[in-house]
Amino acid sequence: MSTQNLATLDATIAENLPAYSKLLFAQKTLNKITFEQIAQELGRSEVAVAAIFLGQAQASPEDVDKLSKILRVTKETLEASSITSIPNRGLAGPMPPKEPLVYRLYEIVQNYGYAFKAVINEKFGDGIMSAIAFSSKVEKEVDGDGTTWVNITLRGKWLPYSRF
After folding, report:
1. Number of Cβ atoms within 10 Å of the Cβ of 44
2. H helix or E strand, kind and range, residue 139
3. Exposed, middle or buried by CB within 10 Å (0-12, 13-18, 19+), for 42?
4. pLDDT in tens, 21-75
5. pTM assigned to the model
6. How far apart are CA 117 and CA 108, in angstroms?
7. Which of 31, 73, 74, 158 is the most exposed, fewest CB within 10 Å of its CB?
8. What are phi and psi of 97, to 5 degrees?
């Protein structure tokens, strides 16, 4: 397995993450395995797997079973951690974010959030896009000129506001 572009634990947010995050990232690095490879084994998206590692998503018992084999960590060790507990989301990093790539995502929402909202409301009506009934993927695109682009897809269930 390749170590090229292998994501590791960001030390600046490590103290805000669950204890198991350090273990998962250490084993990921030791075994030189990417989120894409783990996702294929778990049958989940790369973003979902990274969210589990960062304590922002809950692992299922099946995920724990497979992670123990992939990362070479005993199932008992993973089961003893809070990896299958309901996560305390949104506390991983500072707001506004300081990490440049995360800040750019934040900046996109700052600059275009209300434009997205206006267009979404025109297409769907009054409501919100779920971040619970949600999926996401990241893809790499190289155009005809050789320029590399990032494609991020955010797919959320439409939740219309109900009258009461």
Report:
1. 21
2. strand 127-142
3. buried
4. 999 999 999 999 999 999 999 999 999 999 999 999 999 999 999 999 999 999 9
5. 0.86
6. 13
7. 74
8. -65, 150
